[in-house]
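[recover] target loaded
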């Protein structure tokens, strides 16, 4: 296996393992996410729902929190795993969460039970996005 294929397999395994611990009693839709950092580390998360529905958290948010807790600040690649027939692409809010720590070209892999189904760049999923650098450009009014 090439190094890239090995890395993708490790991301997939981490996301599936996280997905197995998802708490999704309301939607019954479990999701796992795994982040690869430029340092080569992997951080994962699962969705955690709540009886007060809007308080539920997405898998991507959990993975980002684990990454930040470890002191890491960049996403090199991210993989999201969900079951079902459709592509489990990140919700709009999570696209923005990923944007905070990623580049336009950062790969976002979407997996199902059998492996990766599709890969996108962040810019494909969130074009013309707003990010941290916008706060530092231009003259303040
Ligand atoms: N969900 C995620 O965790 N990540 C996604 O990319 C899509 C949706 C969760 C939120 C909720 O707990 C369940 O999936 C159904 O929307």
């Amino acid at each position: 296996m090439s190094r890239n294929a090995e890395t993708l397999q490790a991301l997939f395994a981490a996301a599936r393992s996280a997905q197995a611990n998802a708490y999704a009693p309301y939607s019954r839709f479990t999701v796992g996410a795994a982040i690869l950092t430029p340092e080569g580390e992997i951080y994962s998360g699962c969705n955690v729902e709540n009886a007060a529905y809007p308080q539920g958290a997405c898998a991507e948010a959990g993975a980002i929190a684990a990454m930040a807790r470890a002191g890491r600040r960049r996403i090199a690649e991210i993989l999201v795993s969900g079951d079902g027939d459709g592509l489990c692409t990140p919700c709009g809010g999570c696209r923005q969460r990923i944007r905070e720590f990623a580049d336009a070209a950062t790969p976002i892999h979407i997996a199902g039970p059998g492996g990766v189904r599709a890969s996108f760049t962040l810019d494909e999923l969130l074009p013309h996005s707003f990010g941290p650098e916008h706060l530092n450009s231009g003259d303040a009014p």
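[recover] notes: Residues 24, 27, 29, 31, 47, 49, 56, 58-60, 80, 88, 90-91, 94 surround tetrahydrodeoxyuridine (CB under 6 Å).
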